[in-house]
Specification:
This protein is mainly alpha-helical and 400 residues long. It contains 16 helices and 5 strands. Among the domains are: 74 residues, NADH-quinone oxidoreductase subunit E (Arc Repressor Mutant, subunit A), CATH 1.10.10.1590; 108 residues, 3-Layer(aba) Sandwich (Glutaredoxin); 62 residues. The protein has a 5-stranded mixed sheet with strand order 2-1-3-4-5. It is elongated. The structure holds FE2/S2 (inorganic) cluster. The site of FE2/S2 (inorganic) cluster has 11 residues, from helix 5.
Length: 400
């Protein structure tokens, strides 16, 4: 255990003051505590002082922190001398904390100490070039990779006198180093890799009889969502037929599906079709059905259902590259995938849609129905098609 004393007077600076950025940072820390409790910020402020003063805390910094926190200097001194995270002596550019506790000692820490003495000198002294200093410390919690050392903020483990000597040489000459185990093992696995729990079947559910459960669940969800969407579309078509029988007669039912949703007074129930879906095995995902069949906000009494009409779609992006549809507010990667699969790749396609075409697309945005109308995609796409770009990659939120 090292002796916790202040550095001798001849290395102590005459004064210490936080620089402007650190002063501001310190004020923010102090402001976290209630009035009269500013002393609670003493550890962060000492840490910041150490960081600013080449890795160690001089007497002047302890006094400056005491003044800043309106504390007796002795109170701050007690803290600085108690916690070993504060260095009271100058340290090298690379400060080596070598673990000397039992597991590391049993695995060769004594030999590493000799390397330090040989390469750097006695502990708590800085090498002549200012690059290295070292200190023996208590367990650093990496005993499974003993022996080890912490150098600045990184752990170096599985050290031997040879690789440790080479490591110190690399640090001294500014060559890149690799923190972690120095013997090529991964973390604390055995040398040569893990020896247990290697069967991939342990991680895909087959061991507990789940089989290809991810695929099965995805199929169940898809079937349930399609069944629910079909029911909503059928109900909407029936309503539209009641309202305008002549129009319905002239078009196939699928093209007259209204964009409006069932009113709250007659909420949709999960369809029997969904429950009967073979893939669902009679137990469809309730959440998916509920989401797809969820009643929308009550439509205005006078709002007429909007007929659907399929817009012009592409089989592939023009020039092999679609526009960045995520620049439309509310459109994320899932919706882009859905739109591309539908045949929508470009802003000018969306900008050219009529209300019926918007309704057609909206009705097919599984899980996002109504989003295209709600976020006024047509207006957004018209702006984007001119070459205008929003400040945020999320797009510009439409003003309602
Ligand atoms: S004994 Fe050295 S890290 Fe625990």
């Amino acid at each position: 255990m090292s002796v916790r004393r202040l550095a001798p007077d001849h290395v102590q600076p005459a004064s210490f003051a936080f620089d402007a950025a650190n002063e501001n940072w310190a004020d923010q820390q102090i402001a976290k505590y209630p009035a009269g409790r500013q002393a609670s910020a003493v550890i962060p402020l000492l840490w910041k002082a150490q960081e600013q003063h080449q890795g160690w805390v001089p007497r002047a910094a302890i006094e400056a922190v005491a003044r800043k926190l309106d504390m007796a200097p002795m109170r701050v001194m007690e803290i600085a001398t108690f916690y070993t995270m504060f260095n009271l002596q100058p340290v090298g550019e690379h400060f080596i904390q070598l673990c000397g506790t039992t597991p590391c000692a049993l695995r060769g820490a004594e030999a590493l100490k000799k390397v330090c003495e040989d390469v750097i000198g006695p502990q708590s002294t800085v090498s002549a070039d200012g690059k290295l200093s070292w200190l023996e410390v208590e367990c650093l919690g990496a005993c499974c990779n003993a022996p080890m050392a912490q150098i600045n903020f990184d752990y170096y483990e599985d050290l031997t006198p040879d690789n440790f000597r080479a490591l110190l040489d690399d640090l001294r000459h500014g060559r890149p180093t690799k923190p972690g185990p120095q013997n090529d093992r991964s973390c604390s696995e055995p040398l040569g890799g893990g020896e247990t729990l290697k069967d991939p079947a342990l991680y895909d559910g087959t061991v507990i009889g789940a089989g290809d459960w991810q695929k099965r669940i995805a199929e169940q969800r898809k079937a349930a969502a399609e069944a629910a969407a079909a029911k909503v579309a059928a109900e909407a078509a029936a309503k539209a037929a009641e309202a305008t029988p002549a129009a319905v007669e002239s078009k196939p039912a699928s093209e007259t599906a209204a964009a409006s949703r069932p009113k709250p007074s007659a909420p949709s129930q999960p369809s029997s079709a969904a429950n009967d879906t073979p893939a669902a095995g009679g137990k469809v995902e309730k959440a998916a059905v509920a989401e797809a069949a969820k009643p929308a906000a009550p439509a205005k009494a006078e709002a007429a259902p909007v007929a659907e009409s399929q817009p012009e779609l592409l089989t592939a992006a023009r020039g092999g590259k679609g526009d960045d549809l995520e620049l439309i507010w509310g459109v994320g990667p899932k919706l882009v995938k859905m739109l591309n699969a539908m045949g929508v790749w470009h802003f000018d396609q969306i900008a050219s849609w009529k209300a019926e075409e918007l309704a057609w697309v909206d009705a097919r945005l599984t899980g996002f129905k109504g989003r295209a109308t709600r976020d006024d995609w047509i207006s957004q796409a018209k702006k984007l098609a001119t070459g205008w770009r929003p400040e945020s990659a999320l797009g510009d939120k439409p003003v309602k």
